[in-house]
Design a protein that fits this description.
The protein has 489 residues and is of the alpha/beta class. 36% of the residues lie in helices and 20% in strands. The strands form 4 sheets. Strands 1-5-4-2-3-6 form a 6-stranded mixed beta sheet, with helices on both faces. Strands 16-21-20-19-18-17 form a 6-stranded antiparallel beta sheet. The longest helix has 18 residues.
Amino acid sequence: MDTITFGTDGWRARIAEDYTFDNVRRCTQGFADYLKATYPAGLSRGVVVGGDRRFGSEHFAAAAAEVLAANGIPVHFCGGGVPTPIISFGVTERGAIGALNITASHNPPQDNGFKVRDPNGGAIPPEGLKEIEARIPDDMAQVKRSDFEAGVKAELIHSYDPIPSYDRRIRSLVDVDAIREAGFTILVDNMWGNGAGFISRFIAGGATRIVEFHYERNPIFPDMKRPEPIPPNVDAGLAKGKEIGADAVCIMDGDADRCGFGDEHGEFVDQLRVYGLLAMYFLEVRGERGAIVKTLSTTSMLDKLGQRYGVPVYNTGVGFKYVAPAMIEHNAMIGGEESGGYAFRGHVPERDGILANLYLLDLMRRTGKKPTELLEMLFGLVGGAHYYDRIDFQLTGNEEKQQSKARLDAAQPETIGGLKVTDKVTLDGYKFVLEDGGWLLVRFSGTEPLIRVYCETTHGDKVQAILQDGIKLAGIDTGTGNEGPAAEE
């Protein structure tokens, strides 16, 4: 049968080609064997299982539940349409040993995926993912399987609704009642995904007006190439926000673990600036202190805020499989990545697009400032505006990847985009630190056959020059097709 390879955050594939019921069952058997080897005394605590709104997710989730039950592992079954952060929260609320989530997050509509989580509700570290992958059986003869209803009768599959407990947790973290009476007009772009209705659940019904957009389940995701909260996928939502005169546009990706944000003019606030705003919210507005964890592909504004407020900043490789363990190790106040995923202390070490958007609205409420004014406040704390962009290119094959890697291994440029290079970091890809504190990063995607070129700088007029120098350093054939920015996992 097909060889299944786990990427940065589990396995994703094209539905009906590689992503089939049998391959989902094979992956689940690998996860079950991993759990039995890793938590032999805790198996009775069970696993939370759920899925997103993509095609067939609830049925794939049921197939996974059948395999876990056949292995004697109890299942807390959420069904489909449950946000990823709520499934992760359910792990801690239930005291389970992990979660299995059927979702392809930001991928195109033709795909589905298989995410696994640890007893903290966070991403399983890379070594654990490799072990699960190694345990995936080669054929169905090695997969244990029971009938779903038989699992229910045997009391190994239990219906579980984690939403009421999640509701209580969110209300303990942010004053949603105050946001409800703040008098905002908010456009919520759900991107046809799992987050539909949750921001309204918390803040609708008062002086604040909520307009839900892309609310229904539609697994072909009209108006966007894929349900990731960045342009051009958010353009329709931003235009609707401008049309209704929204004070802000709150955006969530297909499984609601990522946050996108638009200002009062219907302009997109990029995810690096959003991370800066969230850090400023905790440090300056709420007066909290604690470590900040960030992937090396996100903003240097966090390093400047860390210095200003005397808190440590830890850099990791790209993906929450690195961020989550670091957050636990350092009891971090906040952790995040370039793709718009942010996690918070007092919750679970997992991205939560619902909570991130509520925190941004609370920042507006507490300061009385609109998003553009908040950005000016942030830039005043970090020494001026920071500019970011990214270009993705499709790789034609392993030979092209190896050629680019060899060029980048040897690269020692003195300047990039006219700025002096002060350091080269190879923690995850090739990051060239620039004299203004900005950077260029070239790395290979962990989820798709792409090479990504990113940069951040305080010189807005140098962004494209920096990116072009990165393309040259990697020897990229631009004729292979610019994919535009795509969310990383």
